[in-house]
Amino acid sequence: MKVKKHIFVPALTVLFAVLTSPARVSVPGIFADHMVIQQSCEVTVWGWADPGEKISVKGSWAPSEKVSAVTAADGTWRLKINTPKAGGPYTLVIQGSNEIVLKDILIGEVWICSGQSNMFLRMRSLRTEKSKNDIEKANFPQLRQFAVDKTYSNAPKDNCLGKWLVCSPETASSFSATAYYFGTNLYQHLNVPIGLVSTSWGATPVEAWTSRKALTQFGQFEDELKLLDNPVKAEDPSPKAADNSSKAFKSPSVLFNNMIHPLLDWRFKGVIWYQGEANRMRAVQYRTLFPAMIKDWREHWGQGDFPFYYVQIAPFAYGRPEGLDSAFLREAQMLAMDSLPNLGMAVTMDIGEEKNIHPKNKHDVGDRLARWALAKTYGKKDLAYSGPIYRSMRVEKDSIRLSFDYAGSGLTARNGPLTDFEIAGKDRKFVPAKATIDGKTIVVSAAEVSKPVAVRYAFKNWTQPNLYNAEGLPASSFRTDDWPVTR
């Protein structure tokens, strides 16, 4: 009995000490060495500690300024600090019952990079001579990426895991290729540190990235949203287990909960987005669902109508090269530009691959996204940032004249006469058409159609069209009719 008593009492003492010891001050995973934070603004620093504990934060860019907060009853603390113009490296010291010192911090321009597999696709996956050479030359220590681990959840979470990578020939292969080319382009033009927060997952539909509250206006998701309340449904915090073998990660709001919600206090400049393939069979719904997600993000982040630049999906056979489903999705993406302010679309009609849904030319994708940012967000003048976008039509006897936005200094056809134009009369039967450039307009006609009413351009799953503006940017596919969506 004495031996047992001698063992049992210290065990209770240790257990009591563990239960009553103060919680260590902690911060979200995105706060780490090598991070990039947004310049010239008020940024939020937040984390967890014991209720009532005083927390102070000090950045080495302003050593005489210390900001303090008291931890709330739920164990959370939050405070705001001002950042200077771009520069660094700096340190950030967070002091409570313990001290956290974050080193090698840069201050510059931060962008959220999100979407499905074409955004997630890493530099090493391209396997082209260009990408190999670019990786070997990727000595950009002021370009950094934080890749959010792929996890999903039924309910909103407050933290996400990941790691900040400093761009070098050793790390560039792990960067999102689209984000890498976007970021290097910005860096070379702006000459400030660039932070890329990459949060993306292949095969995911837009509703997975949208909050539950925003989805309630769409009756199609009611049953799936109710399943989120079911504790039996598995949630997967493990990146290794959370792969494409399960459909759970595609469920409405689950990626918003675990890959967007933890970032809602993070300050940034804008968003680039590459997604749409997973919604191509629901193109009509996407017309309202995609803008609803953008509005949802803006409302949650509370940073106003921040820039949101996205990629129009590229041509791909999808099993039926002549099918129209992805053309209708591209149309929905084009229509989104008129639905909300501060949007921009990078057209990729010229980089598609018939049998590869992940086109390897991510350089031009990143370049075109960067053009939108440089021109519209950073005010760079005399920079073409969009290819021709259909604006209006006018019937002229047996032909139709088309007008465009973003025609630049003129329209042009590559490698011969214009291709991929079709024209139809009231019977709605489209036939191949002759298209001729006339200044900044195009005149379309066909001998079989004496009284035309509608034109379509590159309006099918797989095509290789050749309409550009003189600045070298391709035109989006389009149709002038509003006839019911077909496959």
Could you say what the CATH architecture of the largest domain is? 3-Layer(aba) Sandwich
What is the CATH superfamily classification of the largest domain? SGNH hydrolase
Largest sheet data: 11 strands, mixed
Classify the secondary structure makeup into a structural class: alpha/beta
How do the strands and helices of this protein lay out in sequence?
Elements: H1 2-20, E1 36-38, E2 42-48, E3 54-59, E4 67-70, E5 76-82, E6 87-95, E7 99-115, H2 117-120, H3 123-126, H4 129-136, E8 140-148, E9 162-167, H5 177-190, E10 194-200, H6 212-215, H7 222-227, H8 254-260, E11 270-274, H9 283-301, E12 308-311, H10 325-336, E13 343-346, H11 362-377, E14 389-396, E15 399-405, E16 411-413, E17 421-424, E18 431-432, E19 434-438, E20 441-445, E21 454-457, E22 467-469, E23 478-479
Parallel strand pairs: 1-7, 7-10, 7-11, 8-10, 11-12, 12-13
Antiparallel strand pairs: 2-5, 3-4, 3-6, 6-7, 8-9, 14-15, 15-20, 16-22, 17-18, 17-21, 19-20, 21-23
Protein architecture, described:
- Strands 1, 3, 4, 6, 7, 8, 9, 10, 11, 12 and 13 form an eleven-stranded mixed sheet that branches. A four-stranded antiparallel sheet has the order 14-15-20-19, with no helix packed on it.
- The protein has helices spanning 2-20, 117-120, 123-126, 129-136, 177-190, 212-215, 222-227, 254-260, 283-301, 325-336, 362-377, and strands at residues 36-38, 42-48, 54-59, 67-70, 76-82, 87-95, 99-115, 140-148, 162-167, 194-200, 270-274, 308-311, 343-346, 389-396, 399-405, 411-413, 421-424, 431-432, 434-438, 441-445, 454-457, 467-469, 478-479.
- By secondary structure, it is α/β, with parallel strands linked by helices.
- Strand 14 and strand 15 form a beta hairpin.
